[in-house]
Amino acid sequence: MNITEASKIMKTVALSKSKLDKKNERIKQLEAELAQSNDKLHRQNNEYIEVCFNISSEREVLKTELAEAVGKQRQSEESADHYKAKAEEFAKELSEFKRQVAAGELFTPQTIHSFLETKRDRWNPLYMADLVKFAAERQRRNGGGYGTQR
Amino acid sequence: MVHSVSPDYSITDELRDRAVGAESELAEFKRQIAATELIPVDVVTNFVAEDALLTDDEVWKIREAIKQFAAEQAKEGEK
After folding, report:
1. How much is the average pLDDT of B27-42?
2. Which pTM value belongs to this model?
3. Is the ipTM of this complex over 0.85?
4. Domain that includes residue A131, residue range
5. Which of B33, B44, B51 sits opposite A112 (nearest CB)?
6. Are residues A30 and A48 in the same domain?
7. Distances in whole angstroms, Cα of residue B25 to Cα of each of A84, A87, B30
8. Same domain for A66 and A28
9. Are residues A88 and A112 in the same domain?
10. B39: CB partners within 8 A, 6+ apart
11. B-side interface with A, Cβ within 8 Å?
C-alpha cells in the first residue's frame, strides 16, 4: 500500500466516522424524544387511571345516595300510608260521634235536664243527679265503652 | 288570611297533622263520654226503663222523644 492509498482510506474512514457520529447524535436525539414521549404517555396513563378511579368512586357514592333516597322515599310512602289510614280511621269514628250528636243519640246532661224540665208535670227533674250517677256507673261497668245500641 | 306553607311540608306531614287532629278531637269525645259530660241516649232510656217500670213501647217512645229533643238542641247549638 502506498501513501496515496493509505491517505484515501483514512479519508474514507474519517468520513464514515463523521457520518456515524451524526447518526449516533440523531439516535440520542430520538432516544431523548422517545423518553419524553414515554413520560408524557405515562403521565396521561396515570391521569386516565385517576379519572377512572374517581368515576368509580363517584359511582359508588351515587349508588349509595340513590339507595338512601329510595329508602327514604319508601319510608315516606309507608309513613304517608300509615297516617292516611289513621286519619281515615279517626275521621270515620269522629263522624260517627258527630252523627250521634246530630241525631240526638249523644248529648250533654244539660240537654236531658232541659228535656226533663219540659216534662216537669210528668217526670221529676231530680232524676238528673241519679241519671248522671247511673251513666257514670254504666260507663264504668262497660270498661269505658261508649256508643249507642243500634 | 293567607297561611304560608313551608316547602318542606310534605303530604306525609299533612296526613300526620290530619291524623293527630282527628285523634285529639276523638280523644276529647271519649273523655267527655267517660266523664258523663256526654251521655248516650241508650244510657238514659235504660235508666228510665229500670227505674220507672215502663213497657218496651213506652221506653222506645221516651227514647225517640229524647233523641228528637237532643237533635233539635244540637241543631240550635250549631246556629
Report:
1. 87
2. 0.58
3. no
4. 107-143
5. B44
6. yes
7. 16, 12, 9
8. yes
9. no
10. A106, A107, A108, A109, A112, A131, A132, A135, B33
11. 10-12, 15-16, 18-19, 22-23, 25-26, 29-30, 33-34, 36-44, 46-47, 51, 65-75
